[in-house]
Design goal:
about 350 residues, 12 strands, alpha+beta, about 25% strand
Length: about 350
């Protein structure tokens, strides 16, 4: 018998270096490498067994609701495709194809289209919630792999691999992506004082523009398949930058880390035309003129969150400067723990 009420959460992430190299076909042909860190913003899930014969799906932060009689599989059209897809997979694999009546509620600590990997973190949190709900033994690697399979293969949503693994594992990691969907997650050991200094130096800025990453990823993928020279050059530089960023953190050299963010952002813009915009460029140049060591747009680009690295004594001033462009600036803390779940009753 499933538990009555289970909750779960999975952290969002900041991609520091190598973003885009985790997307096929680049990672299949060249091997992708990404340096990322989980942060203390989360995707949240509540899963409650019902006493009637209904399935109720709720995206509370978006005020989207869907109700139907319990059946398996649910139709995987909009709205709430992600919720339906995870429900279907667990009913098929772990409930004998039967349909368990339940209410599945989700929300995230950021707007949609944030560039912080919130959609994939939500899928990871749902997989973790269903795993606990049905008492299915799965480690972080299995949770991430299943979330990727549901989101990218079964539902056909464009994107790479890193978001699912960042959400499942947590912490600061250098991730390696190979052909055949092989993913190796290597935790990066950094002096705790350096990580505190990195936290104190980070500024996140929400541009106020939520973007749909699929079109950017589709363009990037098309460029990769065509072996467009500028796009490939940019991706090669991004991969090399991920290794260099790891070494800068190990050495405690945050100005160097910031400079690598800056050069990585230049390389990222080579991979697809829609990654930046006139407003993003204006904000970025203003932050650099104020004294930021470097920065980038988080995720695929085009909007969502930007991140900057600056001397901590100038952080509040940078926040005020960024707020003058509209949107909102904030700090961030790192999250050492990945997806987790608990039984309420």
């Amino acid at each position: 018998m499933p538990h009555h009420l289970v909750r779960a959460r999975a952290p969002l992430r900041l991609g520091f270096g190598g973003g885009g190299t985790d997307v096929s076909p680049y990672c299949d042909e060249h091997g992708g490498v990404v340096l990322n860190a989980a942060i203390d913003l989360f995707a949240h899930v509540s899963l409650e067994r019902r006493d009637d014969s209904q399935v109720r799906l709720v995206a509370a932060d978006r005020e989207h609701y869907w109700n139907a009689g319990a059946s398996a599989p649910l139709p995987t059209d909009e709205p709430l495709r992600l919720l339906k897809g995870v429900y279907n997979r667990f009913m098929a694999d772990h409930a004998g194809g039967t349909a368990i009546p339940l209410t599945l509620t989700t929300y995230a600590d950021c707007p949609p289209g944030s560039g912080l990997g919130s959609s994939s973190a939500l899928v990871v949190a749902m997989v973790e919630a269903f795993r606990r709900f049905l008492e299915v033994p799965m480690d972080a690697q299995a949770v991430a792999a299943l979330a990727f399979d549901i989101e990218r293969r079964e539902l056909g949503l464009a994107g790479g691999h890193q978001d699912q693994y960042a959400a499942a594992f947590g912490g600061l990691n250098l991730m390696h992506f190979q052909s055949g969907d092989r993913v190796d997650v290597d935790p990066v050991e950094v002096d705790p004082a350096v990580m505190k200094e990195l936290e104190a130096s980070l500024v996140l800025y929400f541009t106020g523009v939520s973007r749909e990453s699929a079109s950017i990823i589709d363009e990037q993928t098309a460029n990769m398949k065509a072996h467009a020279p500028k796009s490939l050059e940019g991706l090669h530089e991004l991969k090399a930058g991920a290794f260099a960023m790891r070494e800068a953190l190990r050495a405690g050299d945050l100005p160097r880390f910031g400079a690598l963010l800056d050069s990585g952002w230049t390389a990222k813009k080579l991979t697809a035309a829609k990654i930046s915009s006139a407003k993003i460029d204006e904000v970025y140049e203003a932050a650099k003129a104020f004294g930021a060591f470097g920065g980038k747009v988080s995720g695929a680009g085009g909007g969502g969150f930007m991140m900057f690295l600056i001397d901590p004594t100038k952080r509040d001033g940078l926040k005020r400067l960024l707020a003058s462009f509209g949107g909102a600036a904030q700090s961030a803390r790192f999250a050492d723990v990945g997806a987790e779940s608990w039984v309420v009753r």
